[in-house]
Amino acid sequence: MQSLHPFSHLQFTMEERDKKKCTAKTKSFRARTPPHNNPQHQQHFIHHHHHHHHLFHLHPHYLFHNPPTNFGFLNQNQNLYPYSPPLLPLPPPQTTVSPPPPVVPLHHAHFHKPPWHQTHHQTALELIPRTINSTLVVKKEDIKPIKDPSPSPPPLEPPLTVARRPDSGGTEGIIIPLLANHFLVEFDPLQPIHQYDVEITPKPSKETARLIKNKLFEQNPTIFPTNPCFDGRRTFFSPTRLQPDPISLHIQIPLPNTNTHQEKTSKQFHIHIKHVSRLNGQDLSNYLTKSNRDNQQNKNHITKSSRDNQQNTNTLPQDYLQALDVILRENPLTQCTPLGRSLYSSSILGGSKDIGGGAIALRGFFQSLRPTQQGLSLNVNLTVTAFHNPIGVIPYLQTRFPFLNELSVNKSRSLTFEEKEQVLTALKNVKVMVRHRESIQNYKVYGLTEKITEELCFKDRDGEVYKVVEYFKEQYGYEIMYKGLPCLETSRRKACYLPMEVCVVCEGQRFVGKLSDEQTVKMIKLGCQKPRERKQIIDGVMAAPFGPSSGHQAGEFNLRVLKEMTKLNGRILRPPRLKLGDGGEVTDLIPSRHDRQWNFSGSHVFEGSRIGRWAVISFGGTDEQKSIIPKFIDRLTQRCEQLGIFLNKNTVVRPLFESMQVLNNVSVLESKIKKIQRAANNNLQLLVCVMEKKHKGYADLKRISETSIGVMSQCCLYQNLSRLSSQFLGNLALKINAKIGGCTVALYTSLPAQIPRVLTLDEPVMFLGADVTHPHPLDDFSPSVAAVVGSVNWPAANKYVSKMRSQTHRHEIIKDLADMVEEILNDFVRELSKLPKRLIFFRDGVSETQFQKVLQDELQAIREACRRFPGYNPPISFAVVQKRHHTRLFPADPVSGSGQNMFSDENVPPGTVVDSVVTHPKEFDFYLCSHWGVKGTSRPTHYHILWDENRFTSDEFQKLVYNLCFTFVRCTKPVSLVPPCYYAHLAAFRGRLYLDRTGASSVFTRRGPPKTAPLPQVRENVKNLMFYC
């Protein structure tokens, strides 16, 4: 571990389309230490962490966020799906945390082990039962949760702090030299930074505020001997104290005017500047150096003192980091458009690309200061996002809506009600400027007029009534051509009408509409670079005149950013031995290919299901396509047989052929499926649906089959039936098998055999995964959907039940988590006749600004669920799983020397783990690239353990996660996301489908407070199966 000095000259140097989903290519629509009785052994002091992460996404949303403070902590970095913060966090005040209550052992008098346990002997290679014991050996009254009709509220608990790293990192695996896109930042801790509050009256726009700042410095060089850095809102940062204090000045700013012959008008602003504080970098230096010293002291030691002493002794100085962040962004902002933590420009990084539908794609770069084990580092990454195409409003609408193309020949065409709704959705809140007069002014579209332009009138200041068409002709000499279209409304308070044809979409506006499949493909191509190309682009940004360390500002503050990526060592974890079935026998294999993918090679799935009653229904398709159905049925049954899955060669009814129009009518669709169900004596196991193309009726089909009728369905597209390849049929068979209750693979060496210090065979563990999916960015009304999944078999831990709930619009904290976990615990007892001894909870979709709130609320909810079972208080581990971050790993020197890449491709190999140098200086986190990046640059998954009562070491938790990644049921390779989170994501998406109804309005406007529509209940014969796969 390198020790940190603010000016140590360390030689540290700085996406992917690895999301080749392991879904079926159907394009479906979707030995341990006993617990101590000493309470101090149970004590966990935890520290709050900040960790910037920002998603490379097709159209990310970035907002500056002022965090609430009523939670006993400060949010650091808002990143719900669309958000990214401007600042690093201020950890919570140091609070002595009461130790969690001691683990109370489960009273086994109430629970009998399943029969197979009675004569069981633990072995290193533990064979897993082929089926789950579903025989209830316990009495229901013994496991019934506590139901107090008027329960007293739980006692208030002190704020929790995030778990500290238990050691100095893992040691298992083969060392691999890497580069990370983190750049070491050297700062002088003795350099003061003076913070000033700036008040500008009247309040200007962000663009005007920067013009005012530039003019202010130009006209007053004696007051501003060095140019302070401006955050664009209310704060200046200066390396020297300004005199006098306060400063009060007036500035005249000329208004933009394109007419060079006309005298320019100007506007006066009053600027009041007042000194607020003197910031010192010593606290940041102490925080970083102490973190490194603590990690060195913890090296290779897992003791009571190092585990339980989790209270941080100093906090991260957010105000100083904010100042450094503003300084490093000052020069790039002169040439780029900011969007959250990223900056974009049409003149850099290859310019813009028209992706159709009124959108263009721009490359930009993300930059964020991060405290790491090597010190303060700047994370820089390539980003791509979609912007509105800055063209005329009517051409813009024509690229989005083909029905407007006829305007070129029929200029009097008007809009139907449905067309008008679509146009309003496309233009609402979009900024436009006018081109019918010389002066340039920007307007935000609020709505569309009820009347068409030809019939529209308004009153001038004298009360005289004018027709819009006549006014434009008399005042500007402009003849309105498209008189049948409505005008744009640009004010809520007064009548302000602008004909569409005189308006142009302003440049630099993020496109928030949903991208089409074609647009998505173009975006991915623009942002999909192999590691070498991505590294070259990032290095180019660091050396460019618009880069983070460009300009003179950094030098004035004694700030230096190294231009080389950070060098570090990662480790390649060994893949687990896997267990497959072979005609009733068990076979094993070790994935030895470079991508860790395996094939069955004559072997069967570990547990094959039996499907005797199934049917096929077709929607659309040509006669030639429909003729493939009999061959498809025959080939699918053969492929299932090869994999050890029984699929009856005969369907219960002859294939039904319906038109695509049936998918538009919910009642007709439901009647068709019910007819098939009746033909199967109301016991249909599987319905295979073949569609001509993707259709919004897919959501209705899933909702009807799973919540109304109670039948499992599997959809695929005709285009995938044309070749009937073995890979397609095999992937389809795996999905079907998982949905009916089978499983693809299991670990040959069980988790207890691999992690005996923590896990044992006779003390089952439940893995939980949770995720929340939110509505489309334009939808400000629909509820969010939360999903929680839990494993219900042990030690295989590869079968999961799911619970879904709708909740308040865009609310990230899972509201009904206690009830959902309680239901899953009951399901676990139903299968294994005992409660799990340990709970390991993986939470997806949480940004670092939400760590403290999620930990405080959701850990308490899990504990509340456990308290509903008498005497039940298992140790809980709580880990946040993040994919939306900007850390990328590159093989170091892939051609020669010790850095030679072990594979021909440039991406890091599966199993690459990093838990040093670029990880948090204090807290328990690591990056794991568990998958093989097929396209682009692999994005590692970031695991951050917020709470750990099970006391895992780094090696143990990393091995646990990597092993689980091989057990995903839908494919034969390790996935990038730990399966509990993957399943929770799929389940949440399924819940979202339940809310999507055919015929619902496509315009998302709030006509009242957001309402939470409850999700329909999944039928009993479906809910305990993995129907969401």
TrEMBL record:
Gene3D superfamilies: 3.40.50.2300, paz domain, Ribonuclease H-like superfamily/Ribonuclease H
GO BP terms: defense response to virus; regulation of translation; regulatory ncRNA-mediated gene silencing
Chain residue ranges for the region called Disordered: 1-42, 286-314
UniProt keyword list: Repressor, Ribonucleoprotein, RNA-binding, RNA-mediated gene silencing, Translation regulation
Superkingdom as given in the UniProt entry: Eukaryota
Piwi domain mapped to chain residues: 686-996
Protein name in UniProt: Protein argonaute 7
Organism in which the protein naturally occurs: Ambrosia artemisiifolia (Common ragweed)
